Amino acid sequence: MPLLEIKNAKLKLDDKDILKGLSLSVNSGEVHAIMGPNGSGKSTLSYMLAGRDGYELESGEVFLEGQSLSDMEADKRARSGLFLAFQYPVELPGVGGMSFLREAVNSRRKFLGEEELDHLAFVKEARKVASKMFVKDEMLKRAVNVGFSGGEKKRFEILQMAMLMPKVSILDETDSGLDVDALKIVSDGVNEQRNEENAIVVITHYQRLLDYIVPDFVHILSDGNIIKSGGPELALEVEKNGYVGLINAA
Amino acid sequence: MVATQETIDKVKEVSSTYKYGFVTDLEAEKAPLGLSEDIVKFISHKKKEPKWLLEWRLKAYKKWLSMEAPNWAMVDFPKINFQDIYYYSAPKTKPKLNSLDEVDPELLRTYEKLGIPIKEQEVLAGVAVDYVFDSVSVATTFREKLAEEGIIFCPISEAVQSHPDLVKKYIGSVIPISDNYYAALNSAVFTDGSFVYIPKGVKCPMELSTYFRINEQNSGQFERTLIIAEDNTYVSYLEGCTAPQRDENQLHAAVVELVAMNNAEIKYSTVQNWYPGDKDGRGGIYNFVTKRGNCLGKKSKISWTQVETGSAITWKYPSCVLKGDDSVGEFYSVAVANNAQQADTGTKMIHIGKNTKSTIISKGISAGKAQNTYRGQVQIQKNAKGSRNFTQCDSLLIGDKCGAHTVPYINQFTPHARVEHEATTSKISEDQLFYCLQRGLDTEQATSLIVNGFCKEVMKELPMEFAVEAQKLIGISLEGSVG
Question: Residue B421's pLDDT is what?
């Protein structure tokens, strides 16, 4: 059974067709890259999967570990193990990073029937994971994403991913706004979490992220549908010929 | 409950026998409906008050008759019929319950969400358990310890008997009977409240909480509190509690007076959660309070911190009069208004002495159809050279049917002072909510987290154990307002 399965997904925004019957199957242990030009439906796809209000499917279905997501709200999807690393992480003024993380982790643990972590145990665990991500303690004391640099925001996203241990992670344009050094740190953090039990879907415009997070499969998204799938070499082809060549050939 | 003819007769009897001194003790449960000179006399007599206090009350009553109810606040309610209120009822014991099983389950759910321990829940709900007696003994030990330091902490009615000179000297010295309509009314008919006296050089070793004050349950709708801090003292006073409080009286008009001498510091924290009424505002409490502190001494400091989540209407401006040079006034406020609640609250900082400083941090949260107004005055008088004020007013709107209003008044009579005012209005954005949901928080957790983040600067001013409960309370007050 695939960890994530999208079956013939159709979605409209403001009466405009955005996803036009998209299907995708992601098994555990796999990393998939979805590449596409601007306006191809990449962000819509990630919001649809995460269950954002207003991004409900018109038809088709999505399954997480065989369970349909149709009637599942965003928070329940998250607790069930679906994680979205945001392209633009949102600022929460006055909300401390550590307490935010703890609420998030304990919501997931509660859902999994695990014991919630007390403050001390949690801080210890968070610091351990944070140091691997080159996230300083000081950053966890600050309000979530407030005054963070682009690189800090993305590192904090991946730190949350590491703490929540999701089944399926969707990384939405995680490379945007990152310089080469930050890109490497964030990618290392993601690679660290690759294992046989989970799956990662990387959504990106540029090939360069895929030099660091090497996918098993690459899909080209254009006009609301996957028009071509292949291995890592497909990303290089995009880099060389642009999307136009691929789209025209399809 | 209807007053008996017998009670009415007794009241008449009291007023006619007054000049001969009180001899008879009345057993009446309640004074007759309405307000008159006789009723004021009746209350004073019931409390066995000295003559000067009765005269003071009567003066206040006469003054009140000549005054008009204020109508400048941005609140809307039907005219109050002051003749349709009972002004005195004998302390009542709540009906005792045998276990929590007999308590309204809705109330229990709220207690649980607030994280109130079972034992405390039993006390709050009025269950007859040993713990109640424990709490009385705790309170007694508490008072003994304070007495060792020379601190007086007792119901004001008791202080009138035991320390009449102190009460006489300071009552009405901060808020005169003619100050405003509701203060005049309170002065005429106040029933009880707290009295605190900190003698010179004493730092009060514990937070003084009304929770530990014997007789707290029955201090009634016209509460009167007086706190005096002599030279070189410190005291922190906590008022109210997070558990929802219902009351059969709709109008509450309390008066709180604080006096700080040289180098004295008074920290006054309030969590107010009176019944706000139903979704349409029916049945909620009107909370019309006058609170003011006089920083009389040099380098004195008065700090007001309030978290207001309850009441149908809140009309309240805890203020500081900074007379002593180098004195400091602070006001930290969170006002939450949901559904049909109306809040018009803020502060006054009156700078009189040199180099006086004041800080105002106000956080207003509006949800539902609620209207939330910050109204604040900063006045720098002519001689207050070198004085500074910083004001920050932030409003958070939840939904699109509520309102937030900021009405600052700044009067500066000397160029040698600095006044700053900052104000912001924001909304909980869909992006913020979705971000939290995507991390597995439900809508209520997310709202509570975002709102508490918004209030953080104020919450950190509350004593620790109060702050934790107050945080949860804010979350609960806004339940169902998002999504």
Answer: 93
The number of folded domains in chain B is 1
User: Does A74 reach chain B within 8 Å, measured CB to CB?
Assistant: yes
Q: Distance (Å) from the C-alpha of residue B121 to the closest C-alpha of chain A?
A: 24
CB contact under 8 A, A94 and B438: no
Cβ atoms within 10 Å, residue A99: 16
Range of the structural domain that residue B301 is part of: 129-477
| Preferred mutation among B438, B460, B468, B471 to probe A, highest tally of A CBs within 10 A | B438
pLDDT number for residue B463: 82
d(Cα B108, Cα B118) in Å, to the nearest integer? 10
- Contacts of residue B449 in chain A, CB cutoff 8 Å? 92, 95, 99-100, 103
Tokens 């009542």, residue? B92
Interface contacts A/B by beta carbons within 8 Å? 72
| pLDDT tens for each residue of B16-61 | 433 333 333 334 466 778 889 989 998 898 889 999 999 999 999 9
What's residue B74's pLDDT? 85
**Range B350-369 average pLDDT:** 95
Is B438 part of any domain?
yes
pLDDT for B124 equals: 57
B307: in domain: yes
Does B281 fall in a domain? yes
CB contact, 8 Å: A86 with chain B?
yes
Please state, in angstroms and rounded to a whole number, the distance separating the CA atoms of residues B479 and B338.
9
Q: Which is more confident, B206 or B30?
A: B206
C-alpha A137/C-alpha B338 separation (Å) is 37
List of chain B residues whose C-beta atoms are within 8 Å of the C-beta of residue A52: 434
Cβ distance B439 to A100 less than 8 Å, yes or no, reads: yes
Question: Taking each helix axis from N to C terminus, what angle separates B464-477 and B105-114, rounded to the nearest 10 degrees?
Answer: 130
Beta strands in B326-443 (DSSP E): 328-337, 342-351, 357-366, 371-380, 387-397, 403-412, 417-427
Best CA proximity match to A101, nearest among A167, A166, A161, A188:
A161
* pLDDT: which is higher, B124 or A138: A138
Tell me the three state secondary structure of residue B128: coil
Domain boundaries, chain A: 4-92+167-249
Beta bridge partners of A11: A19
Would you call A90 and B432 a contact, using CB atoms and an 8 Å cutoff?
yes
- Give ipTM to 2 decimals: 0.96
The CATH architecture to which A4-92+167-249 belongs is 3-Layer(aba) Sandwich (3.40)
DSSP letters spanning B327-361: -EEEEEEEEEE-TT-EEEEEEEEEE-STT-EEEEE
Residues of A in contact with B445 (CB under 8 A): 103, 107
| B99 domain residue, yes or no | no
